[in-house]
Prior knowledge:
The protein is mainly β. The protein has no helices and 10 strands. Strands 2-10-9-4-5-6 form a 6-stranded mixed sheet, with no helix packed on it. Strand 4 (34-39) and strand 5 form a beta hairpin. The termini are far apart. The mean pLDDT is 96.
Amino acid sequence: QVQLVESGGGLVQAGGSLRLSCAVSGIRISIWTMAWYRQAPGKQRELVAGIAGGGITNYADSVKDRFTISRDSSINTVYLQMNSLKPEDTAVYYCNKSPKPYDYWGQGTQVTVSS
């Protein structure tokens, strides 16, 4: 049974940084593509960044050069380092598999960026 537990969100001023963590159980993140998604109020959930089993990463254009996805396979945890945050980054952030996420989603972690 897969469990996804996101943490690390908070309130930060524009230009600030946050590091999100996703503790994963039930699958080995080293063999799956894992991703961070986000959903802002009134908007659809969107993919922010992904990391493949081989370590190749991809990013949405809106976060490229600001966000960095990484993982620690020894503790089955995926990270998202977010720098130069903008108010438009405000959303609930989730991790899940990609490109076919599980129907089950964790509780997410709220990121709020003030201007």
